[in-house]
Design brief:
The chain contains 1 helix and 2 strands. By secondary structure, it is mostly loops.
């Protein structure tokens, strides 16, 4: 529930942001995608993102 307006957003309207405990330089491609702001139900596209060696 939004603390400002009291509305319950639909799942597709919820953004995911990296938190303070997230590794800023993760090794795997999925974790690298999760470093950016994104919609929580959006597919994770790792095209062009490589694993850290």
């Amino acid at each position: 529930v939004c603390p400002r307006c009291g509305t319950l957003p639909a799942p597709g309207e919820v953004d995911m942001l990296p938190g303070p405990g997230l590794d800023p330089d993760p090794a795997d491609p999925v974790s690298r995608v999760l470093l950016r702001r994104r919609r929580i139900l959006a597919p994770v596209d790792t095209t062009g993102i490589t694993a850290k060696s």
